[in-house]
Amino acid sequence: xxxxxxxxxxxxxxxxxxxxxxxxxxxxxxxxxxxxxxxxxxxxxxxxxxxxxxxxxxxxxxxxxxxxxxxxxxxxxxxxxxxxxxxxxxxxxxxxxxxxxxxxxxxxxxxxxxxxxxxxxxxxxxxxxxxxxxxxxxxxxxxxxxxxxxxxxxxxxxxxxxxxxxxxxxxxxxxxxxxxxxxxxxxxxxxxxxxxxxxxxxxxxxxxxxxxxxxxxxxxxxxxxxxxxxxxxxxxxxxxxxxxxxxxxxxxxxxxxxxxxxxxxxxxxxxxxxxxxxxxxxxxxxxxxxxxxxxxxxxxxxxxxxxxxxxxxxxxxxxxxxxxxxxxxxxxxxxxxxxxxx
Length: 342
Hints:
- The chain contains 13 helices and two strands.
- The protein has helices at 9-20, 22-29, 32-37, 45-48, 50-78, 82-100, 126-151, 165-184, 190-209, 226-249, 254-275, 282-303, 311-330, and strands spanning 120-121, 124-125.
- α5 crosses α7 (126-151) and α10 (226-249) runs antiparallel to α11.
- It is globular, with a radius of gyration of 20 Å.
- Residues 332-340 have low confidence and may be disordered.
């Protein structure tokens, strides 16, 4: 029987620490990946303006942390599959970008750029909405939950928000959204803020009511090798971000850009659903996750090349993926775990 190689002492200590504190690992993934690895929130102020960095870190943790914890908790308690995480990830994206930051409605929001005018109709930045929901479903919610389950498989099915922790997470999440509403103060969209909150609530109801296993992968085991999913991950981010810009540059209608953006998201999700399998798929999942992270990390590095402190989280991400890849490629085969178990 093959015996997995022993981990280096530093990695073994890190694994032992996060086994005792799995929530901290989840909080490292989000906002770590969507904000700091991508450069959406700059990492270099940790050197030149530590207090400013800590302020933004607190706001990000107050938004992303409770959000992903609540989604994961619902997924575990309701015993539903990944369709629930997708729906709740969309609800999270609506609450962050619609209610807390108003980027779905504010045509002059800095992060929206040209998409504030291209595809803006009835008070909504439609092309931006489609793309940013694709980002939040994957990077803010789905990917952190997936990576936690791969790194600490013993936490799959384990509740984190027991006792007072559930109302505490809800309170922090609501307070952070309220604070960000005051900071962004795009009051012209006040009626739309109410509407988008109602839509997010409806998505939670749908996620609660859908049958268990709905949209779980069709195959019992993967139909393709890990490299196929690495390519899928790389394609997802590149096409999601690049294609709408190319359509805009070609002076084509925003409706076409939105439709193509939605089609890209749907096509990648369907390809994963068709081929990933329900079990014995850890190598495929690892390279899929690596594929969606690599372009994001490249964008973050390019955006902060003048003071590349972001290389620190980049190296930590590389160490993490290398460690779990080595673990799952060398371990003794075990009974398979279901795809949706987290």
